[in-house]
Write a structure and sequence with these properties.
2 domains, 6-stranded antiparallel β-sheet, Rossmann fold, alpha+beta
Length: 503
């Protein structure tokens, strides 16, 4: 896991180094810059695979191709075994990508199983290839400098060192100098009517176990976030099945539901459990830092990001990689507002939409808060095989027609791994379960008057702030960024009226 930055123009070493300084938290273990007459590439490294080699920017055998890469490729060993005509200088997953690109050019992304954002430079053709993983688990932004040079970086704060032209690189797409953007991934549209629930449960169990197993591979300690909710508990239970002495991490305010239920799960599955109890003062103190790293003022995201920051900080004391339960609500119908759909297929369309938007919602939160604490977050539910399988399940198995139980088919799958009190626990978003929700809402109410909100809610660029809480976060954000440059593209919750239950 890393931070990348660059400018498609030579002799920009100083500016790229300044960009890297803004995202040093993404990779404090090593730093590298490559520059020639056409490009400057920079990289901050967080070592996960092959701790002693694999420095980036990385070149191929003859030095024609140079690459910077952020992410993890889970099938790198099988890909390496098929790349028989190449001499490998490292044991990293990164090197597999550059050799695969030699063989397949932009089609290489179709064989990468993992999360990634990457840039490859062809020093002979003087061209670049860029790509982002199917769901945008790993971030990438781009824009043009005043001189007209293409710049790119993992986070907005790095890109704004050289430009206020901020654009998000689309997830599931590639870019080449010659052909521009091209989409290579989409979520399947039409579900297959699988009538037997037992068959679906077996299919989910096999895919989940495979997804968790491959995400436990690392040359550093791996742990799990554990809120005591269905999603994180199921991931933790499967991980504990394959990894002894697994560390689990829970946070919340004193007496919060997440703390209580996480203890139940940790005892049941036998993890080495760690807790952090935080206070209202802790939340107030950390909030500006959370918003800085999050790069968003969306209320639902900020609320959950506070708890995610605390749990990431706790985990960073013990591990360098954590597994998280993000994605299950989008794939299996976990949000309560979805129960309002009278037509199951309209609900199915909504699930596809919010899954496709995860890069601007919960995936952004998990990436930024884990990276803020220099650890890597992995999301087993969002394995591409899991995504394809989930959207072949008819919607009535996700939210049951009988009693409107959310994530019904996933709960049936979890019965093999967890106690009933956890399996059938009502969905609570992270900020509610940890007790953070009310604190932040009260804080915004005390800081933003009705008069101030009405007077300032409409920005000059047309963006409309929808609540006093969003206004409070926006004011913090604009102290840290030229926020108007990107706020119209900022991800926002589906409905602020529903954000008590959404995200």
């Amino acid at each position: 896991m890393c931070g990348i930055a660059g400018i498609f123009h030579g002799n920009e070493t100083n500016r790229v180094k300044m960009m890297l300084e803004k995202i040093v938290h993404r990779g404090p273990d090593d730093h590298g810059v490559f520059s020639d007459s056409n490009i400057t590439l920079g990289h901050n490294r967080l070592t996960i695979i092959d701790l002693y080699s694999g420095r980036q920017p990385m070149k191929n055998e003859d030095g024609r191709y140079w690459m910077i890469f952020n992410g993890e490729i889970y099938n790198y060993k099988s890909l390496r075994s098929e790349l028989k005509n190449h001499n490998f200088a490292t044991n990293t997953d990164s090197e597999v990508i550059i050799h695969l690109y030699e063989e397949l050019k932009e089609d290489c992304v179709n064989y990468l199983d993992g999360m990634f954002s990457l840039v490859i430079y062809d020093s002979i053709e003087k061209t670049i290839f860029m790509a982002r993983d199917p769901l945008g688990i790993k971030p990438l932004y781009y824009g043009y400098t005043e001189e007209g040079y293409l710049a790119f970086a993992s986070e907005i704060k790095a890109l704004q060192v050289v430009t206020d032209d901020i654009n998000e690189f689309p997830n599931g797409q590639t870019y080449t100098t010659k052909n521009g953007f091209s989409k290579y991934f989409s979520i399947e549209q039409d579900p297959i009517n699988i009538k037997n629930a037992d068959d679906i449960v077996n299919g989910l169990r096999l895919r989940l176990e495979d997804s968790v197993r491959k995400r436990l591979v690392a040359d550093v300690p791996v742990g799990v976030f554990l809120s005591g909710g269905l999603d994180s508990s199921l991931i933790a239970a499967i991980a504990a099945k394959y990894k002894k002495n697994l560390n689990s991490f829970a946070v919340g305010m004193e007496g919060s539901n997440d703390i209580k239920n996480a203890r139940i799960v940790a005892d049941y599955i036998g993890t080495i459990h760690h807790e952090l109890i935080y206070t209202e003062d802790d939340i107030k103190k950390i909030l500006p830092k959370v918003i800085y790293y999050l790069e968003s003022c969306d209320p639902a995201l900020v609320r959950s990001a506070v708890a995610t920051y605390f749990v990431s900080k706790l985990a960073s004391k013990y591990v360098k990689v954590v597994l998280s339960g993000e994605g299950a609500d989008e794939l299996f119908g976990g949000y309560h507002y979805l129960k309002n759909y009278s037509n199951n297929w309209e609900m199915h369309t909504e699930l596809r939409s919010i899954t496709g938007n995860l890069h601007n919602s919960n995936l952004q939160r998990v990436d930024r808060m884990t990276m803020a604490n220099s650890i890597e977050g992995r999301v087993p539910f969002l394995d591409t095989e899991m995504i394809h399988y989930a959207f072949k399940i008819k919607p009535s198995y996700k939210i049951s027609e009988k009693d409107k139980t959310e994530k019904w088919i996933l709960r049936k799958t979890a019965e093999e791994y967890l106690p009933d009190s956890i399996v059938w626990r009502r969905k609570e978003k992270f900020s509610i379960g940890t007790g953070t929700n009310e604190v932040l809402n009260s804080l915004a109410e005390s800081e933003i008057s009705d008069r101030y909100f009405v007077k300032n809610k409409k920005l000059a660029n047309g963006f409309e702030i929808k609540s006093k809480e969003e206004m409070y976060y926006y004011n913090i954000l604009k102290e840290q960024f030229a926020v108007d440059a990107f706020i119209n593209e900022m991800g926002r919750s589906r409905s602020l009226d529903d954000f008590q239950i959404y995200a």
